[in-house]
Amino acid sequence: MKRKFLSLVFAALMLMAVSVYGYEICTTENIHCYTVAGPNTLQHAGSHTVMACGDTWAEWADNLDDWSEILCGHGAWGIM
Amino acid sequence: MKQHICILILFFILSTSTFLVSGQNQSFFEPIPHKTLDKTEMIVIYNIKYSPDSTNIQDRFETKAVLYIGNEISLYQCLYSVKREEIMRGAENMDDLRERAMNAPNARFAGRYFKNYPSGKITVTDRVIPDSFIYQEDKNICSWTLHSEISNYKGYSIQKASCSFGGRDWIAWFSTEVSYSDGPHKFSGLPGLILKLYDTRNHYLFEMASVEVAANGHVIEFPEINYIQTTKAQFFQARSHFRDNIINRAAEAGLDIESQQTAAENLRRRNNPIELTAD
Questions:
Q1: B168 and B200 Cβ atoms separated by less than 8 Å
Q2: What's the pLDDT at B23?
Q3: Which residues pair with B223 in a beta bridge?
Q4: How do residues A6-32 score in pLDDT, each as one tens digit?
Q5: CA torsion sign, B101 to B104 to B105 to B107?
Q6: A65 close to B (CB below 8 A)
Q7: CB B223 within 8 A of CB B89
Q8: Could you tell me which chain B residue has the CA closest to the CA of A46?
Q9: Residue ranges of domains in chain B
Q10: Does the complex come out with an ipTM higher than 0.90?
Q11: pTM of the model as a whole
């Protein structure tokens, strides 16, 4: 009985781990937003810490780009 | 009992360490596998002006898109996503990648539209964070009405046509002088290239900026990644679900409460997609 219970717990934990770590790459990045304040002048407009994930770096970059779009609007952005 | 606990501890150490070091151990920017679909014959650049917020249509945004036309297949996508990929591709390490990400232009839309792939269909790949989706629809998205009005645009003789698609009425100006039956977004099917396209509410405007013969060897490629196969209606649902649950999705991505609110507020201002309905 105990063994069955532990096997179930083990399976559930594995399932949880797979769903959390489903992507090969996950990093936490600071997205800095900027607004255009004039010709060649950018003004800092807040920053956001986000976890970007993807199966490849290309997908990771797309994911980061998606979040920057949502968080910075159409302002400029950068990561640090 | 002790054995089970040991297995559990070992499992967590392994999985956690894999997670933590995964960022460092990947070989950098391995190119995504691509399938070559066609040889590019023409490259058309479009300037796009649009109102992302239907409650404030004066707030106009601008971007550029590129249409690669092949003998059989064409590909339409955001020009900045092409430039972004080119810049990121050379990254050698994480710091280099971050540096390049800062200098690369933002892709304003993630969709890629492959017309006549497969024959008679449009294959669309698009994203809803963090997933990539793929769906198909018929290539003939609307029934064009040809009008007798003619005009000139950038030295080309153009003719007016109209159709309804995606909950909007569209006006297109095409030129038979560029004998490719293609155009921006999913639009095609006219007796020439669409040089100008807008909806009657003037929320979206596409204007041809340049038409060039493609360099020898340029090809139309299809990125082969792990897409979620879906239908257009289901993709629209997934996008809508993301919007409705933006606070939860932002929280899952590790954003703090203030950033969650920013994301929700910015998404509220992006409520006016090109296609309002899945038809």
A1: yes
A2: 43
A3: B34
A4: 565 555 555 444 444 567 889 999 988
A5: negative
A6: yes
A7: no
A8: B259
A9: 34-139+202-268
A10: no
A11: 0.84
